[in-house]
Write a structure and sequence with these properties.
The structure is a homodimer of 436-residue chains.
Chain A: E1 2-9, H1 13-24, H2 26-33, E2 35-43, E3 60-61, H3 64-69, E4 75-78, H4 85-95, E5 99-102, H5 105-122, E6 126-127, H6 138-145, E7 151-157, H7 160-171, H8 176-185, H9 194-197, H10 200-214, H11 233-242, E8 244-255, E9 258-269, E10 281-288, E11 292-299, H12 303-323, E12 343-344, E13 351-361, H13 366-376, E14 381-385, E15 394-401, E16 404-405, H14 406-417, E17 422-431
Helix pairs in contact in A: 1-12, 4-5, 5-10, 7-8, 13-14
Chain lengths: 436, 436
C-alpha cells in the first residue's frame, strides 16, 4: 500500500487539529484513500508548548524550508497565516513541486495572482477549503459540484466573530463596544479585532468566493468593505421593528456584464434562512441559474471543524499524487491564466433599499426637509418611524427607502447633512429584501 | 482540445434538463473541464414528444443498447428509473467500460451490491449525485469533503412530496387525504404517490446516505420505514402545542458498534433548522465528530436543479476519463469489496421520546389506566394534554413521554389497547429532541 507524507508548517490551533485528525482517523482515512496519509514533519518556531498531543520528536523542526526540501515530503500544509513567511513557504513548496494545502485567505485574496499562477505552472494542487467558511465545504462545492451551472449570486455570513457580536446584540442586547469586550473576554474576538470587525476577513473570503463563482479575476482592492463598528443597539431595535435582522454579509451577484462584490452590515428579512444563523456559525447561499437556491451552514472556525477541511484537501491532493494527476482541477475551477478580469460594479451604481437613521431636533418641518432631500434625488420612502418627542436634544428619524442608487443616496445625504436640525452622522444600512 | 461524449438513456424531465444545460452552458463547461462535453446520443422509446428543445435528429435512437455499444460514447447517463430496463442498461454500460451517471436511487438502494461491485471491477465511475437531495451536492460532500472525519449522524428531509404535504398541513391546515389530492392536482404528488408517502423513496436515499456516511454495507431491507399516511391534523396541532413540527425524516446515527437507520414521521423542535425547511425543499444535516454540525439545504427535485447534479457528475467522470483515472474514488467512498456489513440496530432497541395520542372515553380513571400501563414498562411522562370534555364519544389523550425503548413502548401500547375505554389505534410519533 502506498504512502503520502505531509509536512505541516505552523503548529497552532488548526495545525494541532490536523495532527489529531491524522492520528485519530488513520485507518479511516487509509480505507478511503487506499494509501497511508502520514504526518512526515512539523515546522514551527515554538516546538515546546504543550498542545495536548503526542508527536515523535524526530518529526519536529524549526526550519520550514528544510521540511519543504525534504524529498520524503509530498504535500505541505501552511497554517502560519499572514502575507510574510507564509507566502515565502507556499511559493517555495510549489517551486519544489509539492502540493500545498492552506487556510490562508488573506494570502490568497491579496497575492492570489502570484500564487495561483505558480501552482498551475508547477502542476501542483493548491487546496484552500479551510480558508472560507470553516467546516463548510464551500470551495469544493463551487469548484466541482456546481461546475455545470452559472451562478447568479453567492452571499453569506463568513465571519464568526462578527456574527457572534451581532447575534448577541440582537438576542441579549448591548452596545457594540460592550459586546465586543465580552467577545474578547470569551476568546471569540481577537485582542486586535480589526481584521474581523472591519470586514477585511469577510472581504478576503469574498474575493475567493467571487472568483470561484464567476470564473474571473477580482482584485481584492476592488471590493467595497464596511465593517460593523457603527452598528448600534438602536439600529438593531429599529431593524426588528421593520422585520429585519442585521448581519455582516459578503455578497456577490452577477448583474449583466458586471459583478457586484461587497461586504457590509445588511438588513436581512427575519424569515430568511440566514437570519437564524447565530453565534459562531457561518452560512453561505448560492443561487444558481439552473440549481435555484442552496444553503450551506456550519461552524465558521474552530480547531476541529477547520482541521476537517484541511484533511479533506490533503486526501484530495494525496489522491492526485497517487493517481499522477496533481493539479487535476485548477485552484479556482478555471485555469487562472485563462481568467479574465471581471468588471466589479462601482458602489455608486449599486441599487438597493436603505435603512437610514438621522438624529434630528424635534421641530416642525424637519421630517419634510429630510424626505424632501430624498425625494429630490428620486428616492421614495417605504416607511418612517418617528416616535419619541423631546423638547430639547435630537430624536431618531428612521426611514426605510424603496430601491435607490447609492449615488442618489449619497447626494441626498450630503444635502441632509447641511440641515441645521440634523445632528451628527446618519446611520445607513443596506437592506437586501430580495435575497431568496 | 479533447472531447468527451455523453449518451443519454431516458429523455424525460431530468433528461431534458441535462440536454438544456449541456447546450446552454457548453462554453462554461469547456472552460472548467478543459475539453468539450458533448451530447453524443439520446435513447428513448418516445422520440417525438415536444420537449421544448432542439436536438439534431441524428442523435436520436430507440435502441439504448446500440447507444451503449457506440464506441464514440464515453459516458452513459441513465435517467429511466426503476429496477428493470434501467438495471440492464447500467450493467451493460459498465460492461462496455463506460462510466455511468444515474439519478436512480431505487436501483442503487436495492441492487447496489451488484452495481457498485460491477463498476469497481470495471474501473469506471458511477456518479449518483442526482439520486439524493435534488440540487444538494450531498453525495460528493460525504464522499470527499468529509472523508477525514467520522460521521456521528446524518439526517434530514429527503422527499419533497412529503415535505410539501406536511408543510401545507402545518401552515394552511387540512387533513392528509385532502392535502395529498391538492398536491396531486398541482403536479407535486404522483398519481400513485405510494413510493413517496409511504417513505420508500426516503429509505432508498437513506440506504445510500448511510453507506456513504459509515463506509459499510446496509441492505435496504434492514431499514425500518414508516410513511406519512397516518399523520393527521390533530397531531400537527398538538405537535405545535408541544413546540414541535412534524417532518418525515430519514435518520442515520452511529451508536457504538451499531448504526441506527430509519425513516418515519418525526417531531422536530420548532427552533431546529429543519423545522423551517418547507415545501419542495430538502435539507440534510451531518454531525461529524470533528466537524460538528453542517446543514445543506436545496431544492429536492425538479428538472434544472437535478440536471445540475447530473452535469456535475458528468464533468467529474469526463475529467477522470481525460486524466486516465476513471474509478478514482469508489462510488460509496470506500471500495465496496472492502465494506463490511454494518449492524443496523433493531427498532425494538431504539430509545427515543414519543408523542402518543389515544382516543379514550371521558371517564374517571382512564388517564390513570393509560399512564399506569406506561409506568409499568418504565416509561415516564413529560407532559399530558387532555382538554376537551364530552359526555359521549372519545376524546384525545395526548402524552409526551421521556425517553423509552421501542420495545417497552410496544408492550405498553399492547396493554393500553386492551383497555375498554380506549378506542381505535393510537397515534405514535417519535420525537427527536436532541438533534443539534
Amino acid at each position: 500500500m502506498g504512502e503520502v507524507r505531509v509536512g505541516l508548517i505552523g503548529w497552532g490551533t488548526i495545525g494541532t487539529g490536523v495532527v489529531k485528525l491524522l492520528q485519530r482517523n488513520r485507518a479511516h482515512i487509509r480505507e478511503r484513500l487506499g494509501a497511508h496519509l502520514t504526518l512526515g514533519g512539523i515546522a514551527d518556531i515554538d516546538l515546546t508548548s504543550d498542545r495536548g498531543i503526542k508527536v515523535d520528536e524526530k518529526l519536529l523542526t524549526k526550519d520550514g524550508s528544510a521540511l519543504i526540501a525534504d524529498p520524503s515530503i509530498d504535500i505541505i500544509v501552511e497554517l502560519i497565516g499572514g502575507y510574510g513567511v507564509a507566502k515565502r513557504f507556499v511559493l517555495e513548496a510549489i517551486a519544489h513541486g509539492k502540493s500545498v494545502v492552506t487556510g490562508n485567505k488573506a494570502l490568497l485574496a491579496v497575492h492570489g495572482e502570484e500564487i495561483f499562477a505558480a501552482a498551475e505552472k508547477a502542476g501542483v494542487d493548491l487546496g484552500f477549503e479551510a480558508s472560507v467558511g470553516g467546516g463548510i465545504p464551500i470551495i469544493r462545492t463551487l469548484k466541482e459540484a456546481l461546475a455545470g451551472d452559472r451562478n447568479q449570486a453567492v452571499y453569506g455570513i463568513v465571519n464568526g466573530t462578527c456574527n457572534y457580536i451581532l447575534s448577541r446584540m440582537t438576542q441579549v442586547g448591548g452596545e457594540f463596544q460592550d459586546v465586543l469586550r465580552q467577545a474578547q473576554a470569551a476568546g471569540i474576538a481577537e485582542a486586535d479585532p480589526s481584521f474581523d470587525i472591519d470586514g477585511i476577513d469577510s472581504a478576503h473570503k469574498l474575493a475567493l468566493l467571487v472568483q470561484l463563482a464567476y470564473g474571473g479575476r477580482v482584485p481584492f482592492t476592488s471590493i467595497p468593505i464596511e465593517g460593523i463598528r457603527a452598528v448600534n443597539a438602536a439600529d438593531i431595535a429599529f431593524a426588528k421593528e421593520f422585520g429585519y435582522v442585521i448581519k455582516l454579509l459578503a455578497i456577490a451577484k452577477a448583474d449583466g456584464r458586471e459583478i457586484e462584490a461587497r461586504v457590509h452590515p445588511t438588513m436581512v428579512p427575519r424569515t430568511h434562512v440566514l437570519a437564524d444563523v447565530s453565534g459562531p456559525f457561518n452560512a453561505i447561499t448560492i443561487m444558481g441559474e439552473a440549481l435555484g437556491q442552496t444553503v450551506y451552514i456550519g461552524q465558521g472556525a474552530g480547531m476541529m471543524p477547520t482541521a476537517t477541511t484541511v484533511v479533506a484537501d490533503l486526501i484530495e491532493a494525496a489522491r492526485n499524487r497517487l493517481g499522477g494527476t496533481p493539479g487535476r482541477v485548477a485552484p479556482l475551477g478555471v485555469p487562472f491564466a485563462q481568467m479574465q478580469r471581471l468588471r466589479v460594479k462601482p458602489l455608486d451604481d449599486l441599487v438597493t433599499q436603505y435603512y437610514l437613521r438621522f438624529m434630528a431636533l424635534d421641530r416642525p418641518g424637519v421630517l419634510a426637509q429630510i424626505t424632501g432631500a430624498l425625494g429630490r434625488q428620486g428616492i421614495s420612502i417605504a416607511s418612517v418611524i418617528q416616535r419619541e418627542r423631546e423638547e430639547k436634544g435630537a430624536v431618531p428619524v428612521v426611514i426605510h427607502t424603496h430601491e435607490a442608487s447609492e449615488k442618489s443616496l449619497r447626494r441626498a445625504l450630503a444635502a441632509i447633512g447641511k440641515l441645521k436640525a440634523v445632528k451628527g452622522k446618519p446611520a445607513v444600512i443596506r437592506i437586501e429584501d430580495r435575497l431568496s
